[in-house]
Every structure is written in structure tokens, then in C-alpha cells.
Specification:
alpha+beta; Arc Repressor Mutant, subunit A
Length: 91
């Protein structure tokens, strides 16, 4: 069984999706203090567009029971790590 499952953004309530995207923006270190631009809401809209383009995805970790936004690189890394662990019998 896979540890991570992809969650389509359209399945999440708007408030939940926005909270996930705000958390992602904060973790990635985007400057949300910009008072001349759109700040956090601008970054959230940009990240939503990245989700729509398939550059990011939402994944639920069944082991930790957490849902996070991930880059495709992170998704692939977790996939490789999980496959490696399964081969070694660690899972």
C-alpha cells in the first residue's frame, strides 16, 4: 500500500484549500509582507494556478494523517523513498 495519495484540489472546501496553500507559501519562504503587491493572497492565487497547471499537487500522508501541498519533485522523491523502503522490507 502506498503511503501517499493524491487529493484533487476540487475535492477540498475553499477554506481548507486556502489554508493549505497559505501554509505552503509560508513554508516555501515567499515574501508575504509586500504591502505594494497582493501579499499572501497574491501568492495563494499563484500557487492555485500552479496546481491547475499540474506543477504542484496535494498529497495526503496516510501514515502521519497530514495533507500537504507538494512539488512534483517532492512527490517523486517520496515515491522513490517509499519504493526503496519496501524493497528493503522496512515498511
Amino acid at each position: 500500500m502506498s503511503r501517499f495519495i493524491e487529493v484533487p484540489a476540487r475535492m477540498l472546501p475553499a477554506d481548507t484549500l486556502n489554508a493549505l496553500l497559505e501554509s505552503f507559501v509560508t513554508r516555501q519562504g515567499y515574501d508575504t509582507t509586500d504591502t505594494t503587491g497582493a501579499g499572501m493572497s497574491g501568492w495563494v492565487n499563484e500557487v492555485k494556478q500552479q496546481l491547475e497547471r499540474g506543477e504542484l499537487l496535494i498529497a495526503h500522508d496516510l501514515e502521519l494523517e497530514m495533507t500537504e501541498v507538494m512539488t512534483l519533485e517532492q512527490w517523486r522523491k517520496f515515491g522513490r523513498d517509499i519504493a526503496d523502503d519496501e524493497e528493503e522490507g522496512d515498511i
